[in-house]
Specification:
Number of helices of chain A: 34
CATH superfamily of chain B: Ferrous iron transport protein A (FeoA)
Distance between the termini of chain A: 90 Å
Shape of chain A: elongated
Strand content of chain A: 5-15%
Oligomer: heterodimer
Structural class of chain B: mainly beta
Number of domains of chain B: 1
Helix content of chain B: 10-25%
CATH class of chain B: Mainly Beta
Number of domains of chain A: 4
Radius of gyration of chain A: 30 Å
Strand order of the largest sheet of chain B: 1-6-2-3-4-5
Structural class of chain A: alpha/beta
Order of helices and strands of chain B: EEHEEEE
Number of strands of chain A: 10
Strand content of chain B: 35-45%
Largest sheet of chain A: 7 strands, mixed
Distance between the termini of chain B: 13 Å
Shape of chain B: globular
Helix content of chain A: 55-70%
Number of helices of chain B: 1
Chain lengths: 695, 77
C-alpha cells in the first residue's frame, strides 16, 4: 500500500510540564521530527510522523501547559492549535501520581470538544507509590479511553496508538457526564450563548457558542477582544456582576472549582492510594541541594561545570572543524594556479568558507550547552536553581534563571542567547537577550590581549582587565533596570512553579531533542551570518586597486593599500570625524567596521592596516603593539577597549537575537542601542580623561 | 464574614496543614493559582518557609514553589 492510500490522522499531544509528554512523543515518533515556531509566536511546536494499522499519523507536540487560559503564549498556542487545526484526536498525557491536578487540563480539553484519549503516564511510579486505578470506571466517567504508559521505558505505545485509531474512527456522541457548573452559572451561560449566536455567528461557528459563553464568563481576554456587540457585553457585565455578589468571588474561580469538583467526583471511587509515604528520595535530595548554606555553593559549582563543559569540551570538535575548513580552503585554492587573483576563488576562500565556518563553529558549543540545560531541566534541578539566584536577580528586575545565560555570555553571546529559552517570561527573556552582549565574550578577549600589554605596565594589566569586565557587568545591570522600567515593564517573576520530584533523565530523548534544536536554529541564524560574511568580504576587497599601481610594494603594503581603498577602508575614513571625539582615527574606525563580522577580526584588521605580517607570531604582535604605542595614548587604548566591549555586537549575535526573538526590530534595537551606549560612555571617558590628564 | 483565625500563608510554620480561604491580588495571579489548584477549601501543607530557598507547599500530591510575595496574598485557615 503506497503512502497516499493510507488514511491520515492528526493527533495533538497535550499535558502538564513534567508529565513525561516529551517521552510519549519520542515513543510515538522516534527521531523523525520537525520543529517550528507556531506562526506569529516564539513558541516551539514539534511534529513527527508515525504509522499504525494502515494509518498515517501526524503527532503534534503542543507546549506543556497546566490549562488553556490566556496566561501565557504557550497556553494560547495550545488552545489555538486545537481550534484552528482541529486535530482528529488529542492525547492528554497525565502524570499518574498526580492525577487530580493533571486532569484539570483534561476538563478544558473536554470543553473544547476534541475527541480525547488519556495516557496515564509514569504508571510505574504511581504503582510504587501505591496508587491504584479502576481504569474502566474512570474511563467511563471521563468518557475517554485511558491507556497506562511508561513512556520513558517505551511501554504502552501500541495500546496508545490503538486507542488513538479507535477514537479517530468513531463518530463522536454527545457527553453523558457533562461538567456541571451549577444552576446560576449555567443560567447565565444560556443567556450569553443566545446572544453570541445572534450577535457573533462567526465566533459561534468557529469556537462553538457554548464554549464562547463559558470563556466570556471567565473574562478570558482573548475571547473578549473578539467581541464587539454592545448588547452582549452589557448582558455579560450584568451577569458577571450578579454572580460576583452571589458567590462573593469571580465566576472564573467558581468555574474552576466546578471543574475540580468534577474531577474529584470521578476520582473519588476510582483512584485509591494504599501506601502512606513520608519521605521520598526527592525530599532528601532537596535537603542537600537547597540547603540554606550549601545550596548556593553547589549551584555555583554546577554553573561552573556547565560553563566549562560548554567551552572546553567544545574546543575539541571546534578545533577539528577548523582543520576541516582549513583543508577545504587549501583544496579549493589548489584548483587554481598559485597566486591567482580570481574573484571566485577569493569569494569562496575568503568569503564563503569563513562564513560557513563561522556558523558551524558555534554548533559544538550550542549542542553541549543545550545538553547540559536539558539535563538540568529534566532532572528537576532547574526548578530549584531558579530560586537560588532569584533574590539577586530580582533587584535588577530579572528572573533568577537569567543568571545562567548571562554566565554563558562570558564565553560567547550566541549560545548564551539561545540559553535564554529557559526563561518563560517574555519580558525577562527579551531584556536578558538585549543586555547579554555586555557580558564581555571570549572574542573580545583577543582585543584586550593585544591592547592591554601595549599600553599598560605589568602591574596595571590585571586590574585594567578586571575593570573592563566589571564595567560590562555594571552597564548590563543598569541597562536591564532601565529596560524593565520602560520598554519591558511588568511582572517578571513566576507566581507559582511546580517542583517536580527529582528524576533520572532519559538520555536518548535528550540527545535527539538537543541535536535537532541546535541544528534547526543554527540554520535559521546561519543564513544571516552567511549573507553578512559575503557582504563584508566584498566590502573589504572591493574596489580593487589596479595591478600597475601596486608594482614594487611588499605583500603587507599591498594588503594595506587594498584595505584603504576598499569600501570598508573608505568608510573608516568617512567616519573619522564622528569618532574623533572618542579619540579614534580612521585606522581604528576601519578595524571596528571590519570586526563587525566577528570581534576576533579586530586584531587582524589592525594588522593589515599597519602593514604588519599576517603571521600571528609574537614578533608580528610586538611590532603591531609598538605601532599602536606610537600612535595612541593609554587613554585611547582604554577607550578602544570600552567601545569594543559595549558596542556593535557581532553579526552572529545580531542574527541569533533576531532568530530567538522572532523579530528583526529587536535585533536592530539591540545593535543600535548598544552602539549608542558605547559611543556615549567612550565619549565621556575620553573627554574627562583628556581633561584630567591635561590639567 | 471570614473567621478571626484567617491569616497569610506566609505566616504558617513548616509542617502545618491549612485550608485555603481566599486569594487576594490581581487577576493574573488569581487566575494562575486557580489553574494550579489553589482554590478555596483546598488543603495545603507548608513544606518550607523561610531561609534562602523558595516558599514550598504540598498540594494534591505535588510540590509547588511560590514566587516572591505570593504567600502573602493567600489567606488560609
Amino acid at each position: 500500500m503506497t503512502d497516499d492510500k493510507l488514511k491520515k490522522i492528526t493527533v495533538a499531544l497535550a499535558g502538564n510540564p513534567n508529565s513525561g509528554k516529551t517521552s510519549v512523543f519520542n515513543m510515538l515518533t522516534g527521531a523523525r521530527r520537525h520543529v517550528a515556531n507556531y506562526p506569529g509566536t516564539t513558541v516551539e511546536v514539534e511534529e513527527g510522523p508515525c504509522r499504525h494499522n494502515g494509518f498515517r499519523i501526524t503527532v503534534v507536540d503542543l507546549p506543556g501547559t497546566y490549562g488553556l487560559t490566556t496566561f501565557s503564549a504557550e497556553e494560547l498556542v495550545a488552545r489555538n492549535f486545537l481550534i484552528d487545526r482541529k486535530p482528529d484526536v488529542v492525547v492528554d498525557v497525565i502524570d499518574s501520581s498526580n492525577v487530580e491536578r493533571n486532569l484539570y487540563l483534561a476538563t478544558q480539553l473536554i470543553e473544547i470538544g476534541t475527541p480525547l484519549v488519556l495516557a496515564f503516564n509514569m504508571s510505574d511510579v504511581a504503582s510504587q507509590r501505591g496508587v491504584v486505578f479502576d481504569i474502566d470506571q474512570l474511563s467511563r466517567l471521563l468518557e475517554a479511553p485511558i491507556v497506562p504508559t511508561v513512556a520513558s521505558k517505551d511501554k504502552g505505545g501500541v495500546a496508545l496508538l490503538d486507542a488513538i485509531v479507535a477514537v479517530a474512527n468513531t463518530a463522536q456522541k454527545p457527553r453523558t457526564h457533562r461538567i456541571s457548573y451549577g444552576d446560576e452559572i449555567e443560567n447565565a451561560m444560556g443567556q450569553i450563548e443566545t446572544l453570541v449566536r445572534s450577535e457573533h455567528p462567526g465566533l459561534a461557528a468557529k469556537y462553538g457558542s457554548h464554549w464562547v459563553a463559558l470563556k466570556l464568563l471567565e473574562q478570558d481576554s482573548d475571547l473578549l477582544s473578539k467581541v464587539q456587540s454592545r448588547p452582549l457585553l452589557d448582558i455579560l457585565d450584568r451577569e458577571i456582576g450578579r454572580l460576583k455578589i452571589l458567590f462573593r468571588d469571580d465566576p472564573e474561580i467558581i468555574i474552576a472549582d466546578k471543574r475540580y469538583g468534577f474531577i474529584s467526583g470521578a476520582c473519588q471511587e476510582t483512584v485509591k492510594t494504599t501506601i502512606e509515604l513520608r519521605h521520598t528520595t526527592s525530599d532528601l535530595a532537596d535537603a542537600v541541594l537547597t540547603h540554606r548554606v550549601l545550596g548556593l555553593p553547589i549551584f555555583l559549582l554546577l554553573m561552573y561545570l556547565v560553563f566549562y563543559l560548554t567551552f572546553s569540551l567544545a574546543a575539541w570538535p571546534m578545533a577539528w572543524l577548523e582543520h576541516l575548513f582549513g583543508f577545504l580552503s587549501a583544496s579549493l585554492a589548489a584548483l587554481w594556479p598559485p597566486n591567482t587573483d580570481n574573484w571566485l576563488r577569493s569569494l569562496l576562500i575568503d568569503g564563503i568558507i569563513p562564513g560557513v565556518g563561522g556558523i558551524l563553529v558555534f554548533l559544538p558549543n550550542i549542542l553541549i550547552l543545550f545538553l547540559a540545560i536539558a539535563l538540568l531541566e529534566d532532572s528537576g534541578y532547574m526548578a530549584r536553581a531558579a530560586f537560588i539566584m532569584d533574590r539577586l536577580m530580582h533587584k535588577i528586575g530579572l528572573h533568577g534563571k537569567s543568571f545562567i545565560p548571562m554566565l554563558i555570555g562570558f564565553g560567547c553571546s550566541v549560545p548564551a542567547i539561545m540559553a535564554t529559552r529557559i526563561l518563560e517570561n517574555r519580558r525577562s527573556r527579551f531584556t536578558t537577550i538585549i543586555v547579554l552582549p555586555l557580558m564581555s565574550c571570549g572574542a573580545r578577549l583577543t582585543i584586550y590581549g593585544l591592547l592591554i600589554p601595549a599600553f599598560f605596565p605589568q602591574n596595571w594589566r590585571g586590574p585594567v582587565l578586571w575593570l573592563i569586565y566589571l564595567t560590562g557587568i555594571i552597564l548590563a545591570v543598569i541597562a536591564a533596570k532601565v529596560l524593565r522600567l520602560t520598554v519591558f515593564r511588568g511582572e517578571a517573576t513566576d507566581f507559582v512553579m511546580e517542583l517536580p520530584p527529582y528524576r533520572v533523565p532519559t538520555l536518548k530523548s535528550i540527545f535527539i531533542h538537543t541535536w535537532l534544536r541546535g541544528w534547526m536554529y543554527l540554520k535559521k541564524a546561519g543564513t544571516i551570518i552567511l549573507a553578512f560574511s559575503i557582504i563584508l568580504w566584498a566590502a573589504m576587497n572591493y574596489p580593487k586597486i589596479p595591478k600597475q599601481s601596486l608594482v614594487g610594494l611588499a605583500a603587507d603594503e599591498i594588503r594595506h593599500a587594498q584595505l584603504a581603498n576598499s569600501v570598508i577602508g573608505r568608510l573608516g575614513h568617512a567616519i573619522e570625524p564622528v569618532i574623533m571625539p572618542l579619540g579614534f582615527d580612521w585606522k581604528i574606525g576601519t578595524a571596528l567596521i571590519g570586526s563587525a563580522a566577528a570581534k576576533e577580526l579586530f586584531v587582524s584588521q589592525l594588522g593589515i592596516i599597519y602593514a604588519v605580517s599576517s603571521h600571528e607570531d609574537s614578533a608580528a604582535v610586538s611590532t603591531l603593539r609598538r605601532h599602536l604605542q606610537d600612535d595612541y595614548s593609554p587613554l585611547v587604548g582604554l577607550c578602544i577597549m570600552l567601545f569594543c566591549l559595549i558596542s556593535s555586537p557581532c553579526v552572529a549575535t545580531v542574527a541569533i537575537t533576531r532568530s530567538e526573538t522572532n523579530s528583526t526590530l529587536w535585533a536592530i534595537f539591540q545593535f543600535f542601542s548598544l552602539t549608542a551606549l558605547g559611543y556615549v560612555v567612550t565619549f565621556v571617558v575620553y573627554q574627562i580623561g583628556t581633561l584630567l590628564l591635561n590639567v | 464574614m471570614e473567621a478571626k483565625n484567617t491569616r497569610c500563608l506566609s505566616q504558617v510554620t513548616e509542617g502545618q496543614i491549612v485550608s485555603v480561604v481566599a486569594v487576594t491580588g490581581g487577576r493574573g495571579l488569581r487566575s494562575r493559582l486557580t489553574t494550579m489548584g489553589l482554590l478555596p477549601n483546598t488543603q495545603i501543607q507548608v513544606v518550607r518557609n523561610g531561609g534562602t530557598g523558595p516558599f514550598v507547599i504540598s498540594i494534591k500530591n505535588s510540590r509547588m514553589a511560590l514566587g516572591r510575595g505570593v504567600a502573602d496574598k493567600i489567606m488560609v485557615m
